[in-house]
Amino acid sequence: MSGALADGVTAVVAACENEAAGREGARLSEADLVAVMTAAARVYARRLEAAEMLGPPIDVGSLSTTDALNTACEIIRATNANMFDVSMWFSRRGE
User: Fold this and answer.
1) Least confident residue range of 34-38, 56-60, 91-95
2) pLDDT score recorded for residue 41
3) Cβ-based burial of 94 (10 A; exposed 0-12, middle 13-18, buried ≥19)
4) CA end-to-end span of the chain
5) Residue 40, helix vs strand vs coil
6) Which helix (H) or strand (E) holds 15?
7) 8 A C-beta contact, residue 14 and residue 25
8) Residue 20 to residue 13: CA distance in whole angstroms
9) E strand or H helix at 78
10) Whole-angstrom Cα distance, residue 55 to residue 91?
């Protein structure tokens, strides 16, 4: 990763971490947060399909179950998936 790209990622992560912790500082706009999450989800899905990414898309020790499920549920609602779709995709990896 280039220095400029790494610096940008570090800045975005820091802004998200600060806001999540209730600290003052830089804050992403709603549009920027949506753009970051959408792009990250696309990359993760592509790597998963290509078997380049086999681990979870999150730092498991840093994200609460509530945070994970709130996010997952909103993504499911936003994409108009239903529970049948979710169960089919959930079982794809044999877990």
Assistant:
1) 91-95
2) 94
3) exposed
4) 32
5) helix
6) helix 3-20
7) yes
8) 10
9) helix 65-78
10) 16
Name the amino acid, one letter, at 74: E
> Token pair 């086999």 is at which residue?
54
Q: CA 6, CA 12: separation in Å to the nearest integer?
A: 10
Short-list 30, 49, 50, CA closest to 38 = 30
The Cα 41–Cα 35 span in angstroms is 10
Q: Please check whether residue 12 is in contact with residue 28, taking contact to mean a CB–CB distance below 8 angstroms.
A: yes
Closest CA to 88 of 43, 76, 71, 52: 76
Lookup: tokens for 83: 């529970």
Residue 20 has which token pair? 């999540």
Would you say how long the chain is, in residues? Answer: 95
pLDDT band at 78 (very low <50, low <70, confident <90, very high): very high
Query: What's phi and psi for 40, nearest 5 deg?
Result: -65, -40
Q: What element of type H or E holds 44? A: helix 30-49
DSSP state of 21: T
